Amino acid sequence: MMRLELVKRPQRSALFSALSPFMAFVLTIIAGAIMFALLGVNPLTAFRIYFIEPVSQVWQLHELAIKAAPLILIAVGLSVCYKANIWNIGAEGQFIFGAIFGSAIPVLFPQFEGPLVLPLMLLLGMVGGAAYAAIPALLKTRFGTNEILTSLMLVYVAQLFLDWLVRGPWRDPQGHGFPQTIQFGDSAVLPELMPDAGRANWGFVFALIAAVLIWILMSRMLKGFEVRVLGSSPRAGRFAGFGLNRMVFFAFLLSGALAGLAGISEVSGAIGQLQPVISPGYGFTAIIVAFLGRLNPLGIVAAGLVLALTYLGGEAVQSALGISDKVARVFQGMLLFFVLGCDTLIHYRIRLIGLALTKPEAAAKLEAAPKLKEAR
Amino acid sequence: MDITVNILLTIATAATPLLIAAIGELVVERSGVLNLGVEGMMIMGAVGGFGAGYLTGSPWIGLLAAIAMGALFSLLFAVMTLSLATNQVATGLSLTLLGLGLSGMMGTSFVGQPGERLPNLDIPGLTSLPVIGRLLFGQDPIFYISIALTAAVMWFLFKTRTGLTLRSIGDSHASAHALGIKVIRYRYLSVIFGGACAGLAGGHLSLVYTPQWVENMTAGRGWIALALVVFASWRPWRVLAGAYIFGAVWIGQLHAQAFGIPVPSQMLSSLPYLATIVVLVLISRNKRLTMMNTPASLGQPFVPDR
Fold first, then answer.
1. Residue A332: which of B87, B97, B280 has the nearest Cβ?
2. Contact B247, B11 (CB under 8 A)
3. Looking at the predicted structure, is the pLDDT value of residue A364 above 70?
4. Where are the domains of chain A?
5. What is the pLDDT of residue B153?
6. B28 phi and psi angles, rounded to 5 deg
7. Buried-most residue among A205, B22, B116, B158 (CB within 10 A)?
8. Which tens digit of pLDDT belongs to each residue from A153-187?
C-alpha cells in the first residue's frame, strides 16, 4: 500500500509548466495504446492511422485547419474567462447563437449581395454570441447565480432553438423537406485561402489573429493584468479598484463574441447553410484546448491543432478499423485529465510513501508507549 | 382517477434519477468537494448497467454494475482532485467529457438492442389496492431505494457524529485537519458514494426509464442534479421536493407535446433547462440563505501540511 504526498514547492516550477503538456501527451499515447490493444487492434497500426495518415497530404492539412479554427477561436476567449476564475462552459451555445445571428442575413435577405454581406454577417455573429453570453453574466452579477450551471443549461436551449429554426421558419421551401436552410449565396460564403490546395478558409486566419490580439491584451495591457489579479486574488483586485462585476461582463462578452465568430465562420465557411447540428462539440472540446494550451493564447494555437487532429484521427480509425469515432472524445478527455494531473507538478513535488513509518513518527510512537502504560 | 395515478407514476419515474444523483452530489458537496462530473458518471452508470444487464440477461446484475461503474469512474476524479490537488471545476468537467466519450465507445454495439427492465414491485393483495396500491407498492425497486437513500442521508448528515464530522470538513478543512480528522479519507469516501449514486441514477435510466442504450441518454440530467443541490441549499428533503418538481416539469412537457399543444415541441423540450435557470436565479436572490448553507470550503483544494 503506497500513498502520495504533495510537498509544496517554494515557487512554481517553470520547467514543469513547459513540460506538463508534453508529459500529458505521452501519457495519453500510452493509455491510448492500452485502449487500442484492448480493442484488439495493433496500437502501432492504430496510431499510424490516427495521428499520421490524416496529416500526410496538403489537402489534409487544410482539413486540420478547418477543424482547428473554431477550437482556437473559442479557446482563446475561454482562456481569458478561466484566468479571471470565471467559468463560462456554455461556449457551445454561444457558437450556435453566433451562427444563427450571422445566418439571418443570407437566409432572410438572399437578394442582398455584395462585399458588405460577409463583414456584416461576421459582426452579427459576434453580436449573437456575445448577447447569448451576456445572459449568464447578467444573472451572475445581478443575482449571484452560478455561471457554470446557467451557461451550460443555455447550451441545450440553443441546440433546441436551432433545431426549431431549421425545421420551422427558416427551412428551405425547396429543400425536399430536409431540415436545413437555403444554401448561402456566393457573397455570404467565407472564401477559401488557397482553393487549389484545399478547403481551408479565412476562419483559420481569424483564429490566428484572435490569438495574437488576446496574447497582446493579456501580456501587454492593463486589462490583462486586471484579469490575472482578479483571477488569483479577488480581494487584492478590489483594493486596486478593479470591479469584479465589470470583469464578469468583459470575460463573458469577449469569449461569447469569439465563440459567435467561430460559429458564423463555421457555417458560412465549412458548411454553407444552417443544419440541426452544426458542431461536433467544438464548444466543449475548446475547454480542453484552453487548458492544454496553458491558458496562453500561443499555446492554445498549438493545442488547437493537436485537438483538431484527434477529430480527424477519430474519423480515420472509424473508416479504416471500424472503431467508433467516439474514440476521439476519449482521447480528448484523457488529454485533459493528464494535463491537469501533470500540472500538479508545477506547484508540488510528489513523494511516494510506503506504509512503513517515517522516522519522526516511529520515534513519537516509541516515546508514547511507556507513557501510555504509566497512565493505565 | 387512473390517469392521475399514471401521471403520478411517470413523474416518480422521471424524478427518481434526479433525486438519486442529487442526493449523492449533496453528500460530496457537504464534504467540501465540487464534482461537476455527475453527467459523466451517470452516463457511465447507464452504459455499464445496460451492458451488464444485456450480456447476462439479469437486470439485477445490471443494477449492481451501474453502481460499480459510477463508483469506479468517480475514483478517477478523487485521485486527481484529492491526491493530486487538481482544480475541481476543470477535473469535473473533464470527467463529464471523458464519460460521454467512453460511454459512446463502449455502447456502440448496444445501440438498438432490446434491454432488460427491472420488474416493478408486486405484492399480492397490496399492489392491487385501488389508487394507493400502485403508487405505494407497485413501483420499480430503484424508486424505493431513492426514498430510503434520502432518509438515510438525512439521518446520517444531521443525526450522527460521522455526519457532523463530514459537514465540519466541508465548512473548514483546515480546522478539521488540525483536530486530527482524516480530511482526505472522508472526502474519498464521499466522492465514491456520490459516484455510486450517479451510477445508480444512470442505471435507472437504462434499466427502468427507457430500457435501452441511447448515446447521451442522460440529456443533461446530471447537470440538473447539480443545480438541484444548489436549489435545495444543501438540504436532503429539499432535494427530494426539487427532484419531484423537476420530474413534473419533465413529464408535463412530454404530455403537452403528446396533446399537440400549438407550441413548437423544441420549446417544450427546453422547458426543464429553462426551469433550472429560473429556480437557480430565484434561490440565489436570497443571498443570506445561500451564504448560510453553502459549505464554506466547497471547491477549494486541500493539501495536508506536515
1. B97
2. yes
3. no
4. 42-322
5. 97
6. -60, -50
7. B22
8. 999 999 999 999 999 899 988 888 889 999 998 88
Nearest residue, CB atoms, A291 vs list B80, B90, B230? B90
Q: Could you tell me if B48 and B74 are in contact, meaning their C-beta atoms sit under 8 angstroms apart?
A: no
d(CA B23, CA B27): 7
Which residue of A8, A92, A149, A292 is the best one to mutate when testing the B interface, meaning the one whose CB has the most B CBs within 10 A?
A: A149
Burial class (CB in 10 A: 0-12, 13-18, 19+), A366: exposed
Tell me if A107 sits within 8 A of A181, measured CB to CB.
yes
| Contact predicate B251/B7, CB 8 Å | yes
What is the DSSP secondary structure assignment for residue A89, as one 8-state letter? -
CA distance B181 to B162: 11
* Strand pairing category for A348-354 and A2-8: antiparallel
Q: Which residues of chain B have pLDDT under 50?
A: none
- Closest residue in chain A to residue B225, using alpha carbons only: A149
> A318-359 pLDDT, tens per residue?
888 888 888 888 988 999 999 999 988 888 888 877 655 555
pLDDT of residue A373: 44
Residue B1's pLDDT is: 64
CB-CB: which of B94, B269, B280 is closest to A333?
B94
B46/chain A closest Cα distance in angstroms: 17
Q: Testing the interface with B: which of A155, A160, A321, A348 to mutate, by most B Cβ within 10 A?
A: A160
CATH number of A42-322: 1.10.3470
Specify whether the backbone of B118 is left (phi greater than 0), alpha (psi in -120 to 50) or beta: beta
Cβ–Cβ under 8 Å, residues A232 and A240: no
Tell me the per-residue pLDDT of A46-56, one tens digit each, with 9 for 90 and over.
Answer: 889 888 888 88
Partner-chain contact B266 A139, CB within 8 Å = no
CB B226, CB B178: distance < 8 Å: no
Q: Report chain B residues whose CB lies below 8 A from the CB of A348.
A: 85, 303
CB B298 within 8 A of CB B170: yes
Quickly count: other Cβ atoms within 10 Å of residue B11's Cβ.
Answer: 20
Question: How many Cβ pairs closer than 8 A exist between chain A and B?
Answer: 139
Provide the mean pLDDT of chain A: 88
Report angle CA A255, B296, A226 to the nearest 5 degrees: 35
Q: B148: distance to nearest CA of chain A, Å?
A: 28
User: What is the least distance, in Å, from the CA of A154 to any CA of chain B?
Assistant: 7
User: Any idea of the CA torsion for A160, A164, A166, A170, to the nearest 10 degrees?
Assistant: -140
pTM (predicted TM-score): 0.89
Residues of chain B found within 8 Å of residue A347, distances taken between Cβ atoms: 85
CATH fold of B2-293 = ABC transporter involved in vitamin B12 uptake, BtuC (1.10.3470)
Given an 8 Å threshold on Cβ–Cβ distance, is A139 in contact with B281?
Answer: yes
CA distance A194 to chain B (A): 34
Distance CA A151, CA B83 (A): 29
Least confident among A4-18, A78-92, A296-310, B14-28: A4-18
The separation between the first and the last C-alpha atoms of chain B, rounded to the nearest angstrom, is 65
> Kind and range of the H or E element at A353?
strand A348-354
Q: How far apart are CA B239 and CA B221, in angstroms?
A: 14
CB spacing of A324 vs B104 below 8 angstroms:
yes
